[in-house]
Amino acid sequence: MEKKFNIVLLGAPGSGKGTQAQKITEKYGLKHVSTGELFRKEISLQNELGLKAQSYIDRGELCPDILTIEMLHHYLDLFPEAKGYILDGVPRTIKQAQLLDGVGYPKSIPVDLIIYLSVDQLEIVARMIKRAEIEKRSDDTPEVIKNRINNYFAQTKPLESYYQKSKIYKVNGMNDAETVFTDICHIIDQFIK
Ligand code: AMP
Q: For the segment 34-50, what is each residue's pLDDT rounded down to a tens digit?
């Protein structure tokens, strides 16, 4: 039987997590889960969760940890047969990492590999501005972009030291998408062999 495994993609907004997650899905058949996408889906449905999330997202703040992890579990429960998951944009706080580990939450999601896409701060800003022009997301205004980047450094970057060094693989996200993907494939191939 093929080994089941889950990957966490860590990196700032605009570091290329979504692009790489899609490529990993195509090659390795893992299920891509983006909490940002899940929230946007809930918002489009205008349901209770969506309305709650929208107020945070529109300000560039992170949504509450428990809300995020509950939504994630609900979604993953729909795919019990998945070969594994690519968690894109979650965890984003130490608390979320603990909840994923089952600390303070009745279920856990094993994290087997963490791939950290490292991109310079100036490049992150440039990419987000460019994406804003293309996607016209409501949370891509200059003020909100600034908040999202600040929150990344304050709340998400500390995850690098939360996770055991042995599990984190740093990839140079400044390279073009194909080179980044080649580097990621080396890491995954090494892990599954
Ligand atoms: P993203 O599409 O990953 O850039 O996420 C868009 C927005 O959704 C973020 O700026 C947050 O407001 C919210 N969000 C996505 N994932 C999370 C998470 N793991 N924890 C809290 N908020 C999140």
A: 999 999 999 999 999 99
Residues 110-153 have pLDDT tens digits of: 999 999 999 999 999 899 888 888 888 777 788 888 999 999 99
Q: How far apart are CA 143 and CA 147, in angstroms?
A: 6
Neighbours of 165 (CB within 10 A): 8
Choice from 22, 38, 62, 68 to test ligand 1 binding pocket (greatest atom count within 8 A of CB): 62
Atom number in ligand 1 closest to CA 37: 2
- Enumerate residues lining ligand 1, CB below 6 A: 13, 34-36, 39, 56-57, 60-63, 68, 89-90, 92, 96, 139, 148
Give all domains of the chain, ordered by start, each with its CATH number: 7-191 (3.40.50.300)
The token pair that represents 20 in the structure block: 């790489």
- CA-nearest residue for atom 19, ligand 1, is 90
Residue 122 exposure: Cα atoms within 13 Å on the Cβ side? 0
Helices (H), ranges, 116-167? 121-135, 142-151, 159-162
DSSP state of 177: H
Q: Give the predicted TM-score (pTM) of the model.
A: 0.94
